[in-house]
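Need tokens for this chain, all 225 residues.
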Amino acid sequence: MNTMESMLQDIEIEVKLTRHLTGKDALSERVMTAIKQVPRRHFVPEELQQYAFYNGPLPIGSGQTISQPYIVALMSDLLNPQADDTVLEIGTGSGYQSAVLACLVRQVYSMEIIEKLSIAARERLDKLGYENIELRSGDGYYGWTEHAPYNGIIVTAAAPHIPQALIDQLRIGARLVIPVGRPYGCQELRVLQKNADGSIETQTILEVSFVPLTGAHSTDTTAKP
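Here are the structure tokens for all 225 residues:
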């Protein structure tokens, strides 16, 4: 049955199936509560409402997708969000991940390169009453310097390499969660953490499949992945 309860059960099952890759027997209670608080149906196109709580990605127009609920939950958990954090999201899409993060942190800044999606997400999130999300239409490759540094950065599209600007905008001890790989090819979900000396620790979590990060610099494959 396509319900919030069935979606939550599917997430729990997937967590157990992937624990040998993620090292997680369960996701944090705060993250699962946030997932429960955000009805996914509000972020899915009208014609796909019957699949709103399906544990898989769905098209939202402009060649983009709303991510699989399990992946949204996992990436939120990997970010290790704290209640007083300020986080940056690259790739607003329909605003679903933004809304989940808004339940977990003090302030969310989110960027979407496709203006049509950004406008729709702003209207949707305002209508739903999310007051701690600020949206901007622009190329997320460069991040959002005005509000940096961030307690965490999450990227919801696959980049061919790690944008240096995003690393620069991380606070010490903060994490960047990002899928890395070629468009529609082999991609890895990675977690980067900035150490006190500025060095970066990187952990590869599992293979994923995301739409590609777009923009003038997103297709540059000359940099190290």
